Structure formats: C-alpha cells, structure tokens
C-alpha cells in the first residue's frame, strides 16, 4: 500500500517546515496527516480514486489534493519545493536519535553545520563551538556522538517494515505488466534479515516482454531516480532513499536466479563448492555439467527445489541461508521443521488505554478473536513507566477487575490478566511478589539503564528470570534497530537461567525491535530455553498492532525455532499447564 510512502512524505514536509521555523499550523497538520496515513487500515489509493480522502480524520482539502497529486504524478510539488529550501544533509541529521528539527535548525543556523559528517567532526575536534548553543551541553554532545557512530555503522540499511512496504508496491507494479509470470523478492529481504541494504526483485518473463517490464518499473510511482534501465535489468531509487533492482529472467533459469540473488553470498559460495565436488557448476542461469559449453541446457534451473534436489539437499528455507550449518543439515535431511505464522495460537504481550495503548480491553479482545487466537494476555505498563501512563497498585487492581469481567463475556478466547513490569537496573521489579502472584501472565522488561555493561546487564536479567512469578522476559536487550544497540548480554548464561527456571524469553515482533535477535534465539534454543513471540501491540489494528506477529515468526525462523520451542503455539490447555509450571 502507498500509505507508508505518503506518511513518510508528509512527515518530511513537517520536518522541513519545522527546521525552517515556518508555518507552525502546517507542521501540525502535516504531522497529523502522516500519523493518520501510517495508522489507517484503509487503502489510501482506493480512497483517492473514489475522491473520499477527506472522510479520514485530519485529512482536509489541501492534504487530499496533495495525495491525489501523488497518485497522478508520483510526486507532491510542495514536497519537492520544500526539499530545495534546505541542505538535504539536515534530513540525514534528523535520523539520529536525540536530534529533532529544532536542534538541527540551531546547528545549521548558529554553527553552519549541514551534514552528519560535519557534525561528527565538530564534536570530535571543536566541541566548544557547539557548547554555547542552547540545549547542547557536553553530556548531550557525548550522547549525540555515540548515536552518530552507531548510525554511521548502519547507514544505508533499512528496517524490514520500510523495505517491505516499498517492495510490495513495486512487485504489484511488475506483476501487472504484460507477460509477467512469477514475481518474487530475493536478497536479504527474502531472507528476512533484520535490515536490508537494497531490494532485489525477480520477474519471470520471456525476452520479448522484458524491455517493457523494465520501462514500467522505472516509471512506477515513488521512483525518484533511475540508475539503470537495460534490456533485462532496471535499477531505481524510491522516495529519494532506497534502491530497488529488478531483473527479468526467462522461465528455464528463474529458480537459479532466485536461488542466486536470494543469497546470502556466504551460502552461495558454500553451495557452489558442493556443486564443484559433484562435477557440476552452479550460477544464476542454472546447474550445469562442469564442462558444459555456453548456451548448454541446464540440468536444473526452473525452480529452487530442483536445484537443491540435484545437489542432494533438502530445499532450504531462505531465512536459514546464512552459511550457519544449514547446508550440512540439509545434506543429512535434518533441517528443523521451522515455526510458521499459522502455528501461533495467541499473543501474550499487548497494551490498552489503561497505560499507553490506543484501544480498550474489549477492543483488543475483539481484535484477537478476529485473528483466530485461542488466548491472549493484556500486559500494560507498571508504575515507574510514568511517560507511558504506567499503572500503580490501585489502578492495576481496577484494571485486572475490568479484564476479568470482560473475559467472562468471551468464552471462546482465554483472556489472561497480565502486566509488563519494569526490571530496574539491579534486577528488582516495579511490583512486589504479592502483586505479581495474583496475575495470570507477567512479562518483565528492561526499559531504562540500557547502556550498562555486559556483566551487570546479565545479572540484572537473570535476577528477573529467577523470580518465580515472572513468566517471560520482554525485549531482553532493549535495542532499537538503527537507533540504539541495547544491552550487551551473555546470552548463553541468560538462556541457561531461563531454561532452569522455565521462564520464556520474548521475541518481540515489532520490526523496530526484533528482540531477541536471530543469533540469540538460536543460542537460547540450544540451551533449552522456551520462547514467546509477541507483538507488544499498542493498538488493535493500524500502526503498532497485533498484525506485526509475522516479523517475529520470521526472526524466530532465522534462529532455527520450531513450534515446540515457542509457548504461544501451545493449545490453551498446554499453555495453562505451562503457566503453573
Ligand atoms: P543487502 O542488500 O546488503 O541487504 O544484502 P543482499 O544479500 O540482498 O545482497 P545484494 O543485494 O548485494 O545481492 C543479492 C544477492 O546476490 C546476494 O545475497 C547473493 C548474490 N550475490 C551478490 N554478489 C555476489 C557475489 O559476489 N558472489 C555470490 N556468490 N553471490 C553474490
Ligand atoms: Ca539486496
Ligand atoms: Ca542488490
Ligand atoms: Zn510492552
């Protein structure tokens, strides 16, 4: 859907106006539009086509006109004009954690800084130049320097939600072309790596359609630059940000190309060695006898399955293709039976209006029922989360009473009354055991002091794991992808403690978190720990909602998880038994 692209454009317009310190009224209305566009479950393109955009809250006449212009021309003139009014490096500076439009404006106007690179150099070499700027004390500068170093390390990589939205849109465009057969995403996005450098798309079509397919692709909505447009390959930049490559491939080598361009590079190299040992050669056109002349017919190439089979291997799910032992396992027929989204029976971490969620208890129950869940846990924030409207003991008691009375109305779903209790930096919890033991499901999560050292952080989590009333540890490292690294933890020790105490470790499915991450998950499973995959939803549908579950499942697959490793694949009866463990 175009919703996300449009939301990003409106947010950028608001940022630019705010940097320019112009038109505060517009800033507010663009931000509101960005939020509505990102959160709505309605298809904006359909609403625009029907002339019904203004039925969305916060979308007035002039915003609606801009959206319609976008669908007509692929651009918003006002957006392009605004981009000409500031050095574009300022937008890059805005992506740094702790940096808002006001700070960026001050750095620009008072110190002439117009790029991240410049800012990093000044902080390193001449910080006194900045310290006289209001709000930029030495502590803040140290924080900014750390954030910049981190951002530079990850720069140019996009989260799965960002890349996925762009890829879906362009796959749709390619699919609708004359002569297009199979259209698949390849590369790191197909492997569901937590961040993606560029997007790779493959289209199966015969040569005579290729040129036109490439042309349609390079003219797609959202394309802001065409890097290459050849006979079978096109390369574009979408929304001034992300690169997308399209290759058009004939049927007989589509599987080979899909295999090759899915990667990873390390997996491909290992696979080619196996081919060589069998007197074969493998490339993006197919699997051939080692001495086959150019243009020879491949032994396999139409599908990935026939290529892996010809090499004596089980087909390997893309999430495992990182050269982490998957090829040896496939050779022995011992690949894990990876968990699937359909295995998930319920969501055990979500918020309501009682703390910082957007929907009521009953609305969340209805949303979970709609997803076909058999159980759910409502886990609002605890009292020290003041900015998230965390519950104190009295409000918690009222909230639990409300959950229990709502639960009685819905017999076909098991509604658990829970809490997301803060883990303080020494491992103690925000509520006493007397309170926790009355609850059906307790997620304990770290939210503050996320920069403490490895030994301290590990001790902190283990103390929470050992609390008999804690069922799961929420987003154990507290990282935010592309924003902050989170705590460095000794995952082996933590997993051993989790296994010994029968406390589950969360795989938080939010695409900004994916915490635990893939390699942690694998270690956790090997140590015998159980996982729980949750969305940490803050709304029923739209935005940070219950439908993010698939990101968590894919991350768990990258960690070699089976359904048996994950407690929220259990039947309600089995889960109840586990809760009493
Ligand atoms: P990214 O885009 O950085 O997130 O990661 P990928 O894995 O999508 O990498 P990309 O886009 O450079 O290339 C797509 C796939 O093409 C990659 O996963 C494997 C294959 N590939 C690219 N270059 C090479 C290479 O030099 N050797 C081999 N064996 N495969 C390659
Ligand atoms: Ca790629
Ligand atoms: Ca690529
Ligand atoms: Zn939460």
Describe the structure using short key phrases.
581 residues; alpha/beta; Beta Polymerase, domain 2; TIM Barrel; 25 helices; 16 strands; binds 2'-deoxyguanosine-5'-triphosphate; binds zinc ion
Please state the structural category: alpha/beta
CATH topology of the largest domain: TIM Barrel
* CATH architecture descriptor name of the largest domain: Alpha-Beta Barrel
The CATH C-level name of the largest domain is Alpha Beta
Strand arrangement within the widest β-sheet reads 10-11-12-13-14-15-16
Mean pLDDT: 94
Low-confidence stretches: none
Oligomer: single chain
By CATH, the superfamily of the largest domain comes out as Metal-dependent hydrolases
Q: Which strand-content bin applies to the residues?
A: 5-15%
Count of DSSP-assigned helices:
25
Give the number of DSSP strands: 16
Radius of gyration: 26 Å
Form type:
globular
* Spatial gap, N to C terminus: 44 Å
Q: Main sheet?
A: 7 strands, parallel
